[in-house]
Amino acid sequence: MTVQDIQSDSTPATTEESPPSPRRWWALAVLMIGTTLAILDSFIVNVAAPSIHTDLNTTFAQLELIIGAYVLVYGLFLVTGGRFGDIFGYRRIFVAGVLLFVAASLACSLATTAEALIVFRVVQALGAAMLYPQVLSGLQTMFKGREQAIAFGVFGATIGLASICAQLVGGMLVSLDLFDLGWRTIFLINIPLGLLAVAGAMLTLPGGRNAHRPSLDPIGGVILTLALVLLLLPLVLGREMDWPVWMIAMLVLSVPAFFAFLGWERAVGRRGGDPLVSMDLFRNGPFSVGTGIAMAFFACNSGLFLILTLALQLGLDFSAAESGLAFTPLAVAFMAASLLASRITARLGPRGVLVLGYMANAVGVLALILTTAAVGTDLSIAALAPSLIVIGFGQGLGVSPLMALVLQGVPARDSGAAGGVLETVIQVAWALGIALLGLIYFTLVGGHDDAMDPETATTAFNVSLFCNLGLALIAATLVFRLPKSVQTPA
Question: Which of 338, 379, 407, 455 has the least C-beta neighbours within 10 A?
């Protein structure tokens, strides 16, 4: 027996083996407030963009950065934020992240220049990257068995609700112009929500740390951040900047940068250290296959959201409010499926519910292709609704059960880092889907990003959907690569 074995045998039980917290359902509500904050500010600024452009006299490049900087920085620091939770305890990092997010939201509401707003959005994203992995860590460690499936179902429904609220509440706040504050109110609403989350976290979230606390891997963090910058910066900003050569070079260089990160992490593990991302995670079949599924699935759906919005608003002259209403059937179906997911999982098993979800998603995309081909420029909210309901139902069955399955076998000491890796994959997939589908769509319409011919817009939308369908089928096919031994939690 080695010294490490003796130390392991004598170490107190980890969070994984602790009895369930009696306040775990109140804690779930607190974690969902944190989820809402992070998701809300990924989307709500889109609705307020025209108002911000007018009020701060921004250039279009600055406006793109106000939106894109949040997504970029959020994706860069999720893994590091998750590892902080493993080291210092997820309650501490959740509270610190929410407080940073609230302070940055207040600063955003007071910004008087585009440059200041961009900087404060970056700080906001840092807060979100700290708090969000702790949500996944809390869901994994506080809930077991069927309770965990229910908790992840609530998590999926919260994502859907936050996405709806981002469109509807954001538009309403800007239109009401409360106290002559205009777009600034979209940031001010984060303050009471954030303070409520902090108070709730101090009362309900477990305050301990994992007995087997990993150490920080700063060099690994730097290499991973560099690799993600090389990948995400072109994906987020490439189209707006017309894909200069240096951005394409960044994409190419991201490949050796990621290999360098993997090599460093393996070296740290071989010499007995604590890597930022343990390579043992990828020896876990559900985790490695699940991250591949997430890449295809989220790229598919982010691309769909982009090209449908472009076709409706730029091609068919829908208003922003009408475009938001077009997505409502999808979001409602997503929430309903998320809440039903635990029951369906109990009947069909983890693989069964994912097969059903991803096949429904693919069928919905195919139905959307056929609908657009049949209706053409007469495309309406009513014509879109049946296909979008099927897509939303498939998405709802494909999000929370996937996350629960991917994190199911992860040790408690790595739960934060694992959640950060999973969410980083989702962010990369989201940016990849937008870049890929945006490139196809704008190539087909001739590169115009202002009003365009309705027939050209709907044709480009219909052709681009075939790429969506391909990604949806890849996700559905990968489900069959999940280990057959995967079982529903007892």
Answer: 455
* pLDDT at residue 450, rounded to an integer: 54
Highest mean pLDDT among 48-57, 336-345, 362-371: 362-371
With contact defined as beta carbons under 8 Å apart, do 158 and 29 qualify? Answer: no
| Residue 448 parent element (H or E) | none
Q: What angle is formed at CA 244 by the lines to CA 242 and CA 246, rounded to 5 degrees?
A: 150
Close Cβ partners of 405 (under 8 Å, ≥ 6 residues apart): 286, 290, 350, 354, 482, 486
Q: Give the pLDDT mean for 443-465.
A: 78
Contacts of 122 (CB under 8 A, 6+ apart): 69, 70, 73
3-state secondary structure of 300: helix
In this predicted structure, the answer to whether residue 13 has a pLDDT above a threshold of 50 is no
CB-based contacts of 250, cutoff 8 Å, min separation 6: 229, 230, 231, 233, 234
Give DSSP secondary structure letters for 169-227. Answer: HHHHHHHHTGGG-GGGHHHHTHHHHHHHHHHHHHHHS-----SSPPPP-HHHHHHHHHH
The residue that leads in pLDDT, 372 or 418, is 372
Per the CB < 8 A criterion, the answer to whether 285 and 482 are in contact is yes
- Using DSSP's 3-state secondary structure scheme, residue 55 falls into helix
Look-up of token digits 């305050």: 207
The token pair that represents 203 in the structure block: 């009362």
DSSP state at residue 243: -
Tokens of 326: 């077009």
CB 56 within 8 A of CB 74: no
Residue 484 banded pLDDT, cuts 50, 70, 90: low
CA distances (Å), origin 246, targets 72, 232, 401: 18, 14, 39
Helix pair 60-88, 415-444: axis angle to 10 deg = 160
